[in-house]
Amino acid sequence: MQHYTTLYIPGHVNELDHLDSTALREFMEQHVHNNPQAMVISGAGIAHDELVDIASRNFGHLQQRQHDTSSNLVIPSVYRGGECKVRCKTKEGFTHVAIGLPVGGWLSEDLVPACVLQTLLGGGASFSVGGPGKGMYSRLYRQVLNKHYWAESAEAFTAFHEECGILGICGSSLPAKSRDLALVIMDHLLKLSVEVVSDEEFDRARRMLKNNVLTQLESRLVLFEDMGRQVLTYGYREDAKAMSQKIDGVTKEDLMNLVKRAVRHPPTVAASGDNVDSVPAYDEIKGWLKRKSWQFL
Q1: Of 277, 267, 268, nearest to 86 (Cα)?
Q2: From residue 71, how far is each of 68, 232, 266 by CA, in Å?
Q3: Closest CA to 186 of 245, 268, 113, 91
Q4: What is the torsional sign of CA 221, 222, 225, 231?
Q5: What residue ranges define each of the domains in the chain, with the CATH number in brackets?
Q6: Which pTM value belongs to this model?
Q7: If the chain, 297 residues long, is cut into consecutive pieces of 10 residues, what is the mean pLDDT of each piece?
Q8: Nearest partner of 255 among 120, 160, 142, 63, judged by Cα
């Protein structure tokens, strides 16, 4: 059985208002002071011995807490799909719709193809703050924002976890057009499962993804986060050269096969706004997903 829910949030809840010094101290005690084995210390532009010395002086005194194994049972995550609609006040009055499909997680071979696919779809808001032409070559810009006057935004997204991930498209429009928006989102997801992408947009997406990875790693903060995340996830760190080789190794068929596997599962649908009544019912969206012989716009 799928899980359907519609929530109404009368006002915006700011979690920062409930954050105080006691909560911060408890977090540090639980995740840092009493759990040094979960820490990853990374450095750049510093000699290894010097980094080890600094780490020992600052963190060497920490003691690992005793784990209560009875309360730390690991339950595997299973993707189920489902729907969540949230009624909430918005400043602009738009309805936001997101539809996602399951892909593999951090340890899956789906990871890099899913990132290439997200870059290929691209997207953003209807107004380009960078000036005319900025980002206009991505598929969602050309085939959604430039084609449908009512589309305020359309953007591909990914969310990865250890066991599973989600690839999808989110967008926004006036409430009266939210049904059309959901249809367009499903249209573009289904296209990817039956149509091989063009050489031009495929090569552009791979080059852009490599450029994004290399550019972000120029920031020390991003570099440290990348080191820590990879060591915690994989137990080692891949350098930029290895990641670039993986991106170059992705094929157009990999992208299509990824989506073909994803559309076999029920979708995840989320919608929010002052009015979500025009967003199609979950069963209707599932029906669209099953139409492999869809006549595309």
Answers
A1: 277
A2: 6, 22, 32
A3: 268
A4: negative
A5: 13-73 (no CATH), 81-290 (3.30.830.10)
A6: 0.83
A7: 48 68 88 84 89 92 70 73 91 94 93 96 69 64 92 94 93 96 94 92 95 90 89 89 95 95 93 94 88 47
A8: 120
